[in-house]
Amino acid sequence: FNFSFGENDALIRYKTDGWSYEVGIQASLTGLMDISSSPTRLINSDYFIGAGLSFSYNRRWQNLIQFSHLSSHLGDEFLISRPHYINKRVNLSYEALKWFTAYKFNSFRPYIGIGYLVDRDPATLKPFTLEGGLDYFSEEKFLYNTTRYVFGIYTHLWNQNNFKQSLSIRTGLQLENPIWGGRHLQFLMDYAYGQSRHGQFYAKRDHYIGFIICLSN
Question: Least crowded by CB within 10 Å, which of 102, 118, 161, 193?
Answer without folding.
Answer: 118
